[in-house]
Amino acid sequence: MFSRIKSDLDCILERDPAARSRWEVLTCYPGFHAVLLHRVAHACWMRDFKWLGRYISHTARFLTGIEIHPGASIGERVFFDHAMGVVVGETAEIGDDCTIYQGVTLGGTSLYKGTKRHPTLGRGVVVGAGAQVLGGFTVGDGAKVGSNAVVTKPVPAGATAVGNPARIIVAEHDQKREEAASKMGFSAYGVTQNDDPLSQALRGLIDTAAGQEHQIAMLWKAMEQLTCQRNTITVVPTDAATSEHFEAAKLNQLVRE
To answer: Strand 99-100's sheet: what is its strand order?
Structure first.
């Protein structure tokens, strides 16, 4: 038991730069308290002391602001960071080394008792602040759910889900991407740069438009040069784009912001 508590304390020290000592985590971190109380409530629930489990869960919610149903399953080294307003449903399963931020709901979409109504999080999943993961599906190992995302379908291992409704970004598997990810280390709040696929699409369209304008300008210049070499008179349209005016850099900056 004490070794398990020690591993919980150490995982918080690793993931939260604001944590300064085990004593501080032990006495001042509601996410740690919520996990400890849930283990007691879950033990009661599994031994058919249903009311006692619910009462302990209710007390934990009052003390920590984190509501975890005693029937939920939580693995090792799970960190609820800040975590005010977190709700974890009865059939939810949280794997080892997961990190869950404030305002997250691991909820259900079915009203049928005895069914798997709530999500399963694999190992090392990060769920960003305000995210809603709803349904009896699986979020794969190492996946990330961005802040305020609404996820209603499975997320593959290593992928990122962002937006409402959530869009799945499957991680690239080439060596360069893996090396860059390892250098970045732990991703707080489950968001990384360039996650949003809409922003990526807009930047791609902007870059394409800029390239097309460049090509058109080059074509008009080439036509002018050919006209001068042949000493012929060619009327160039007054609205012909012989120079570039497309400000791709500024538009890309607006998309990033």
So the answer is: 79-80, 99-100, 126-127, 144-145, 160-162, 167-169
Model confidence, pTM = 0.67
Q: Which of 95, 84, 93 is nearest to 130 (CA)?
A: 84
Task: Tell me the angle at which helices 30-46 and 2-15 cross, rounded to the nearest 10 degrees.
Answer: 140
Distance CA 54, CA 44 (A): 9
Q: Give which of 59, 121, 62 is closest to 89, Cα–Cα.
A: 121
Which positions ≥6 away from 219 have C-beta within 8 Å?
none
Asked if 169 and 197 count as a contact pair (C-beta separation under 8 A), the reply is yes
Burial class of residue 48 in the structure, from the number of CB atoms within 10 Å of its CB (0-12 exposed, 13-18 middle, 19+ buried): exposed
Residue 54 has which token pair? 């619910």
Please state whether 83 falls in left (phi above 0), alpha (psi between -120 and 50) or beta: left
What whole-number distance in Å separates Cα of residue 139 and Cα of residue 149?
A: 13
Residues 45-84: tens digit of each pLDDT: 999 999 999 999 999 999 999 999 999 999 999 999 988 9
* Cross-strand bridge partners of residue 32: none
Whether 41 has a pLDDT exceeding 50, the answer reads: yes
